[in-house]
Amino acid sequence: MVTNISHSPAETEALGELWGRAAREGLVIGLSGDLGAGKTQLVKGLARGLGIPARTHSPTFTLVNIYRGGRLTLFHIDLYRLDTPAQMIEAGLEEYLDPAGVAVVEWAEKWFGRMPKFPKRYRSVMIDVLNESERRISYEDIGA
Ligand SMILES: Nc1ncnc2c1ncn2[C@@H]1O[C@H](COP(=O)(O)OP(=O)(O)OP(=O)(O)O)[C@@H](O)[C@H]1O
Ligand SMILES: [Mg+2]
Known about the structure:
Strand content: 25-35%
Bound molecules: adenosine-5'-triphosphate, magnesium ion
Number of strands: 7
Structural class: alpha/beta
Number of helices: 3
């Protein structure tokens, strides 16, 4: 487990950017943390690190936003509105267990751990709110 303390939204974004630069095809990044923890903030940095030209925003009306034009395609999935594993299979999310690019999943705990299938290469990330401006960002890599 690796732990970072972020002192600002910009620092959280910078961490995501580092991950984006280092990411390899097939990586799944699962984000857990309360409302407003900074999951989407991290995704913004990730997109920048992958060289994606578009601005990212959370998928609101769709489950998955797809960003092309970077070094790898980024699939941004937000499970906030889903509850059961059956809904996730129904929504076709199993495709993103071994993505043709990088997949990042907000509210990942709703999916991984509750489903029999698991990503091949997975980074499990927890964001804890310490106070108004500080976040503890811990992660663990699972799989090759
Ligand atoms: N160190 C920090 N890192 C990230 N965000 C921070 C930090 N300090 C303050 N913030 C603020 O916290 C909020 C994080 O919002 P963000 O949308 O990224 O959260 P989220 O986890 O995606 O929430 P949701 O569950 O609603 O999708 C922003 O308003 C941001 O400015
Ligand atoms: Mg979000």
